[in-house]
Automatic annotation (TrEMBL):
<comment type="function">
    <text>Stabilizing subunit of the glycosylphosphatidylinositol-mannosyltransferase I complex which catalyzes the transfer of the first mannose, via an alpha-1,4 bond from a dolichol-phosphate-mannose (Dol-P-Man) to the glucosaminyl acyl phosphatidylinositol (GlcN-(acyl)PI) intermediate to generate alpha-D-Man-(1-&gt;4)-alpha-D-GlcN-(1-&gt;6)-(1-radyl,2-acyl-sn-glycero-3-phospho)-2-acyl-inositol and participates in the sixth step of the glycosylphosphatidylinositol-anchor biosynthesis. Probably acts by stabilizing the mannosyltransferase PIGM.</text>
</comment>
<keyword id="KW-0256">Endoplasmic reticulum</keyword>
<dbReference type="InterPro" id="IPR040039">
    <property type="entry name" value="PIGX"/>
</dbReference>
<keyword id="KW-0812">Transmembrane</keyword>
<keyword id="KW-0337">GPI-anchor biosynthesis</keyword>
<keyword id="KW-0472">Membrane</keyword>
<dbReference type="GO" id="GO:0005789">
    <property type="term" value="C:endoplasmic reticulum membrane"/>
</dbReference>
<dbReference type="InterPro" id="IPR013233">
    <property type="entry name" value="PIG-X/PBN1"/>
</dbReference>
<keyword id="KW-1133">Transmembrane helix</keyword>
<dbReference type="Pfam" id="PF08320">
    <property type="entry name" value="PIG-X"/>
</dbReference>
<dbReference type="GO" id="GO:0006506">
    <property type="term" value="P:GPI anchor biosynthetic process"/>
</dbReference>
<protein>
    <recommendedName>
        <fullName>Phosphatidylinositol-glycan biosynthesis class X protein</fullName>
    </recommendedName>
</protein>
<comment type="pathway">
    <text>Glycolipid biosynthesis; glycosylphosphatidylinositol-anchor biosynthesis.</text>
</comment>
<comment type="similarity">
    <text>Belongs to the PIGX family.</text>
</comment>
<keyword id="KW-0325">Glycoprotein</keyword>
Length: 221
C-alpha cells in the first residue's frame, strides 16, 4: 500500500491516506486523528483525483444505499470507459466516520479505479500523482479556533440527515506539500505492430469459426 502521513491544523491533526490492494482496482482508505474535541462536528476530506484514476458513481451509489460509505463527486457524471488521455480531474468529498476505539479518530474508504493509458516508450508503467487530502470540519453546534480553521467553499450539507446549508471549515496552517505515487501498468509503444497483427489474426480466426458454425448448424429458410 501507499501511505502519506501529514501534520495539519496547527500541527494538531494527523492525516493518513492509503491505497490498498493491487492492480487497477483499489480501495482508498483515509484516516484522520484530531487532537481537539470534535464533538458534534462532521469530518470529511476533500481530494483531487487526477485523470488516470476515478470513482465509479454507480458503485458509489450502491455503497451509499447500504450505508457503507458517503461521498460527493464533482462532476457527478463520469465516463467510466474513457482512457486517461480523454478524462479529466475529479474532486472527491469523502465523509469520515468516528472510530469506536478512538474518540478523536475518523476514517472512511472508497473504491477507486485506474484508467487505461496510452502505450509508453521505454517503460511499462505510468505514474499517477495523488495529492494530500484536505481536512474539513462542519460544526453546527460548536465553534472552531479562528487561528487554525477558516471557512471553506463547500456547498454540501454536514450530513445525509441535513438538507440546509452548513459552513465547512478547512485548516489554515497546512503542512508542506506532500504527494504519493500510484504506478499503473501500460503497454509498450514498440509492441504496437505485434499487437495489431495478433489482434487482426485473432479477429479473423474467430470470425471464420463463427461463420463456419453458422453455415453448418444454422437453419436458413
Amino acid at each position: 500500500c501507499v501511505t502519506i502521513d501529514v501534520q495539519a491544523a496547527c500541527r494538531d491533526t494527523a492525516v493518513t491516506q492509503e491505497l490498498l490492494k493491487e492492480g487497477f482496482h483499489r480501495d482508498l482508505l483515509v484516516k484522520v486523528e484530531l487532537r481537539e474535541d470534535a464533538g458534534g462536528c462532521a469530518v470529511a476530506t476533500r481530494m483531487r483525483l487526477p485523470p488516470g484514476i476515478y470513482v465509479d458513481p454507480y458503485e458509489l451509489a450502491t455503497l451509499q444505499q447500504h450505508n457503507l460509505t458517503k461521498a460527493v463527486l464533482s462532476p457527478d457524471v463520469i465516463d467510466v470507459e474513457a482512457p486517461e488521455y480523454l478524462a479529466r480531474d475529479l474532486v472527491l468529498l469523502l465523509f469520515l466516520e468516528r472510530d469506536g476505539r478512538c474518540s478523536h479518530c475518523f476514517h472512511a474508504a472508497v473504491p477507486v479505479h485506474a484508467r487505461y493509458h496510452r502505450p509508453a516508450e521505454g517503460t511499462e508503467e505510468a505514474v499517477l500523482v495523488l495529492e494530500r487530502p484536505e481536512v474539513l470540519l462542519c460544526c453546527c453546534h460548536s465553534h472552531l479556533s479562528a487561528e487554525c480553521w477558516e471557512p471553506a467553499e463547500v456547498d454540501t450539507p454536514c450530513s445525509s440527515d441535513s438538507t440546509g446549508p452548513c459552513q465547512w471549515h478547512s485548516t489554515k496552517h497546512r503542512p508542506a506539500y506532500e504527494e504519493s505515487m500510484l504506478r499503473v501498468p501500460v503497454g509498450l509503444r514498440e509492441h504496437n505492430s505485434l499487437v495489431c497483427a495478433l489482434t487482426l489474426l485473432t479477429t479473423g480466426l474467430c470470425s471464420g469459426l463463427i461463420l463456419a458454425a453458422a453455415c453448418r448448424y444454422g437453419h436458413f429458410s
